[in-house]
Amino acid sequence: MxxxxxxxxxxxxxxxxxxxxxxxxxxxxDRDPEAARALQxxxxxxxxxxxxxxxxxxxxxxxxxxxxxxxxxxxxxxxLAKHLDKGDCIIDGGNSYYKDSVVRSQGLEKGGIYYxxxxxxxGVWGLANGYCLMIGGPPAIFERLKPIFETLAPPxxxxxxGPAGAGHYVKMVHNGIEYGMLEAYAEGFELLNASTYDLDxxxxxxxxxxxxxxxxxxxxxxxxxxxxxxSLEQIAGYVEDSGEGRWAVLEAIERDVPATVLAYSLFARxxxxxxxxxxxxxxxxxxxxxxGHGTRKAEDGS
Length: 302
Hints:
- By secondary structure, this protein is an alpha/beta fold.
- The chain has helices spanning 10-21, 33-38, 50-55, 71-83, 98-109, 126-129, 139-144, 146-152, 166-194, 201-208, 217-228, 244-254, 260-272, 278-291; strands at residues 2-6, 25-29, 45-46, 62-65, 89-92, 114-121, 132-136, 158-162.
- The chain has an 8-stranded mixed beta sheet, sandwiched between helices.
- Helix 4 (71-83) links the parallel strand 4 (62-65) and strand 5.
């Protein structure tokens, strides 16, 4: 099948490679011309503009957008829409907010352009293992694009989950759960690390992956990370968030759902970015005021 791919970062480039190896035909574009040219040897057709990419495709055209959420998606779709025709389709495979996806779908529908929102999970391992695809949009277009989904995903790794916005909604909750799982592992391994038993954390992670109820792919990745750097001395404890965890917590508030773990795991990421917590300083000061508990001077690492 023929497809256009816009956005050739780690995910977009690997998805392009997987599709090319599945014998699909791809025209590709990225703001960095070298990213597009790098895939030419693999069989992709590099394009120097969105307009050129659209011109390289036969009707009905299908263009997968794999750029950062927010303005980059909005701007890319707006530019694409100028060059597409009725019956063409835009696929948003990034981490877009599901409410934005609904609005984008409605706007494109006025011009007869289809919109599919595809929550995509798999990270840098997707090239080899396949991507889990959570797909929203018109059922008929889902059927049309099945050859693409079948190549990108492992067996049973893709599903049409509902109308516009549903794919990104499911991916939002998926990422919220991911935040909670990561935080649980983080707290558990920090407790192990604080033990007086001088535990081998790589050994423990490997052990837990052998039949334990907490075994998982994430724990396999922890095992891998601890094998390479047992004390994690080469990694700063600064944790970013993609935005989906925030949206999941906001959704929980709107729906009156007590998503306690999801909320805490998001706030724990915020805490990781503070070199020094003013809130912790205030707690120390108050403990000293009401109970005479000792405090440390700032230069001692309060």
